[in-house]
Design brief:
Elements: H1 4-18, E1 23-28, H2 38-45, E2 50-56, E3 59-64, E4 68-73, E5 78-83, H3 96-99, E6 107-113, E7 118-123, E8 129-134, H4 135-139, H5 158-165, H6 173-178, H7 188-198, H8 211-230, E9 271-275, E10 278-282
Antiparallel strand pairs: 1-6, 2-3, 3-4, 4-8, 5-7, 6-7, 9-10
The protein binds a DNA duplex (16 and 16 nucleotides) through helix 7.
Length: 293
DNA sequence: CACTTGACCTGTCCGC
DNA sequence: TGCGGACAGGTCAAGT
C-alpha cells in the first residue's frame, strides 16, 4: 500500500514522536522482517538516541546517534504504529481502539523505547523489511543510484521528467511511471490518478506523448501527491499512519477502484484492465492515446 | 532491451 | 458453510 504520500505521512508523525528517544529493546517475531545480529543490536541500536526521521523514495529512515540508521520498506502491507506507555494518545483519540489491539497477528517487530513507548512494525504479507545501515551510506548518492528523482523536489522539472521518460521510448507510460529508477515514490494508485488528471491513456507508449502531455503530467503528479499528503495518504485496506489514523485521499480519487462508475469528467464508465501486470483504472473516453507527435 | 511471469506471503472476496 | 481460485497498493529475479 504505502506509496510516497503514505510514507511521508508516517515520517512526519514519527519524527515528532520518536526524536530524542532511545531504543532499549527489540522484540523480533518474524526474523525475515529484520535480519540483525546481537552484536549489531548492542553496538549500534540499543541506547542510541533518535536524531531524525527521514524519507527518500518509499524508504523511511530513522537516524540514530550511533551513526547507523534503521531503514524500513513497508512494501504492500507494512505499518509503523507508535503507542505510548499507557496505550493512549489522549482521551477519545479515534484510534485508541485500534491501538489497544496491538500487538496483533501481523506484528513482526516491536521496538521499545526508553520512555516505555512501543513502535510496532506490522506487516500482514511479510514483504516489508527493516535493515540497519550506516547513515553515511544513506547520504551517499550511490546508495540511491537505482532510485529516480523525488517528484516533489524543487529540482524536479517537467524537463527532467521528459528526459527520464525518453529513456524508455517504447514502453507504456503506466509501466514507466511505476518504474522506481525513472521516478521515485509513485505506485499503482497515484499513477492511475495522475494519468487520469493528465488525460493520458495508460497504454500510450512514451514516444507517442507530446511535450504538452508531459508538462501536464508533471503538474498532475505533483498535484495528486500534494493533495494526498494533505489528506494523510490513501487507506485502501491496511494503511495507517504512525498514530494509527487512516488516510482519506481515496474519497477524492477519480479512477482508482472506480471501475464501472462514471468518469467525473465525461461520465463515460471507468474501466479496469491489467496493464504492466497491475490492475489499471482509466476512462477510455477522455484518456485517449495521442495520434500525432 | 522490452516485457511478462513467478516468487515472496497472508487475507479477503467471489462463485460454485 | 466450505472450498478453490483470483486478486491485493511493491519489488526482484528469471524467462521469453
Amino acid at each position: 500500500m504505502p506509496e510516497l504520500p503514505e510514507v511521508e505521512t508516517i515520517k512526519r508523525g514519527l519524527k515528532d514522536l520518536v526524536t530524542g528517544l532511545s531504543v532499549k529493546e527489540v522484540v523480533i517475531k518474524n526474523h525475515k522482517s529484520f535480519l540483525i545480529d546481537e552484536n549489531t543490536k548492542e553496538l549500534f541500536l540499543f541506547n542510541h538516541k533518535v536524531l531524525d526521521v527521514k524519507r527518500r523514495a518509499k524508504l523511511l529512515m530513522i537516524n540514530l546517534d550511533s551513526d547507523y540508521s534503521l531503514v524500513f520498506h513497508l512494501k504492500m502491507t507494512g505499518q509503523l504504529v507508535y503507542v505510548n506507555h499507557n496505550y493512549r494518545f489522549g482521551a477519545g483519540h479515534p484510534t485508541d481502539s485500534l491501538i489497544h489491539q496491538l500487538p496483533d497477528k501481523s506484528t513482526r517487530v516491536i521496538f521499545i523505547f526508553n520512555n516505555k513507548a512501543k513502535l510496532f512494525f506490522n506487516d500482514q504479507r511479510k514483504f516489508g523489511w527493516i535493515k540497519i545501515i550506516p547513515t553515511a551510506l544513506l547520504t551517499d548518492k550511490d546508495f540511491f543510484k537505482y532510485h529516480g528523482p523525488e517528484p516533489l523536489d524543487l529540482l524536479f522539472s517537467s524537463d527532467v521528467l521528459y528526459q527520464r521518460l525518453l529513456k524508455h521510448p517504447n514502453s507504456k507510460i503506466k509501466a514507466v511511471l511505476l518504474n522506481q529508477t525513472v521516478l521515485s515514490g509513485l505506485g499503482n494508485i497515484y499513477v492511475d490518478e495522475s494519468l487520469w488528471m493528465s488525460k493520458i491513456n495508460p497504454l500510450t507508449t512514451v514516444n507517442r506523448l507530446t511535450e504538452k502531455n508531459i508538462v501536464v503530467l508533471h503538474r498532475s503528479i505533483q498535484s495528486v501527491l500534494n493533495k494526498s499528503i494533505s489528506l494523510g495518504g490513501s487507506t485502501d485496506r491496511n494503511y495507517v499512519d504512525a498514530k494509527g489514523n487512516k488516510g482519506s485521499y481515496l474519497k477524492f480519487a477519480n479512477v482508482f477502484r472506480k471501475e464501472n462508475q462514471p468518469c467525473p469528467r465525461c461520465s463515460n464508465l471507468i474501466v479496469k484492465q491489467k496493464i504492466a501486470g497491475r490492475g489499471t483504472h482509466f476512462c477510455p473516453n477522455c484518456q485517449k492515446i495521442e495520434i500525432e507527435k
